[in-house]
Amino acid sequence: MTNSSPPAIPLKHALTIATSDSGAGAGIQADLKTFAAHGVYGLSVLCAVTAQNTTAVTAMECLSPATVTAQLQAIYDDIPVEAIKIGLLGNAENTRAVAEFLAAKYPHTPLVLDPVMVSTSGHVFLPPDAVEALKTLMAQAMVITPNLMEAATLWGRPITGEAEQLEAGRALLATGAKSVLVKGGHGRTPEANDLLVEAGGEAAWFRGPRIGTPNTHGTGCSLSSAIAANLASGLTLREAVSRAKEYVAGGLRHSINLGHGPGPLNHFHRYYHFN
Ligand code: PXL
Predict the structure, then answer these.
(1) Kind and range of the H or E element at 19?
(2) Ligand 1 pocket: which residues have CB below 6 Å?
(3) Catalytic: 219?
(4) CA-CA 20 to 30 A from 211: which of 87, 192, 217, 273?
(5) What are the pLDDT digits (tens) for 243-272?
(6) Closest Cα to atom 12 of ligand 1
(7) CATH value at residue 191
(8) 53, pLDDT greater than 80
(9) Shortest-distance Cα residue to atom 4 of ligand 1
């Protein structure tokens, strides 16, 4: 081996079950880039395809639950999975198919569930029956990662400050999720503070400055994938969240001016920046 060869690292595998974003800033593309940036082998199960760029989502088509399950089975039959991230599943049928498969085959694998319902550009991704199905899947999660709007929707009450952020986090433990990360990125305060509420109601704040950039597309996808990658590498949940927040902050500091709307973060900011 020469001095210049890269280091050998343990092979860990993270699986994303999510939807394609043709602009590749969010969705399954963001998840796979995040896994790669963490030195974790990324596996993917595609649930739907969106046609979108930085300005709008113009079409979406779901794959059949049979095709979703076949992808899960193909991976299960051949490749180990140390952590799973769930993003946009598209409809109630796919959500139920995923819930059934994970309960049967991956009952002890750490599951990070990002309850994506509406895109930042305002596109409603999930019909109401899919939101109900998603609530059932939350009971299988190690952590769910709602932003303030998603947490308010799931809780059924508005969140206007940190006291309510904490109340919402505690209330959402009733979903059955082992812990809840209520992300503060969509607030209006100078800081973007995320709150982790763990079983029993114990809470930990992860504080950080709000990073002034319009390019925030895919932030939620990337954070939940970074948490999953860190869990796959064997970190505790708190450490996984803390490092994931740092990773996303770095990506936002070096975010990419792509297209005419909000661009994505730079998933590989630790390796190169664009000028
Ligand atoms: O960031 C949520 C999200 C998840 N999945 C897909 C998306 C988006 C946001 O645009 O496009 C496919």
Answers:
(1) strand 13-21
(2) 18-19, 21, 26-27, 50, 52, 87-88, 116, 119, 218, 220-221
(3) yes
(4) 87
(5) 999 999 999 999 999 999 999 999 999 999
(6) 27
(7) 3.40.1190.20
(8) yes
(9) 27
